[in-house]
User: What shape does this take?
Amino acid sequence: MFDMKKVAGNIKTARMKKNMTQMNLADEMGVSYQAISNWERGNSMPDIAKLPELCNILGISFEELVGERSEETEIAERLMEKKEAEVSLEEMAKVGPMMKPDVIETKVEETLKKKGKISFATMVSIAPFMDKETLDKMAEEVADINFGQLCALAPFLDKSTLDKIVDRSLQSTKTDWNNVVAVAPFLSKSALKKIADYLVENGQSSILVAVAPFLGGTMLRDIMQDVEMDASAMENVHIRIENGSGDEIDLDDLEEDEVAERAGQALERGEDLRDYLDYMDEADVDVLAIKALEAGYDVRDFLDYMTEDGVEKLAFKAMELGADIEDYLDYLDEDVIKRLLLRAMKK
Assistant: This one.
């Protein structure tokens, strides 16, 4: 894999030698300012189709851009020369950050026509660069998936796809449930309930202890009525969040507005708010983020859970408070960034 930080540094160095701003380079390349910013911060790589143009504008060779000769650079050069047919799917995965999803999907289709199937290991390697719908269809067709292996693919799959895999596993006598805990964070509550019921019915309560932290409080109480479990083992199951009054609350059991209310209470107590974000409506996160910023919290973890308008308002509020907004830029469009720059220049 390319050293993205090294490539990022080389792009920035070459740009500055040309006395170009990021906006200048963006205009020359026909891409957004955010794209250049992401390249120079090592958050993403330029598309392979853009590399010859980038090297030409910066006045450097491809080898100078990537910093060294490697298997990846050789693969990239073949692709730059439009020799996709000579590159295998496994090789394409090695330069995945620089590939457009449709190019990888075309190679997937070609590979399936030639070989009839794609290995699980290859599927895992290309998962970060594929369209979710296509990946879901491929995963559904893989037989006898091991849960230890599935954990590497689970973050890229839809919950409904994972549920189908669980249903298939419940019907198989070959399923090894020992590693199911690795996949548990990605499963729906209904799938977890089916697994828990299966484990109870088949006398595998020791595995149930491992899965328990991902079950809702109500669900776990119902299951516990049907099975005896060692008390010391249950003491190690951390599934609840203290609400400040000594009561234990499972966020899975609450409605979104109730979670938002409790998050507000946690903010007033100066507690960590990150555990609440997965259970909140985006609009509620927007409101909480402003309050948290004003209270002196680091709100970068909020950004993935917010609306675009919410991030924009948060960025302007951060500027008013004199806070750094660099991490906000990936979530804002070019027009908003320009407005922020104008605001900054007026100060």
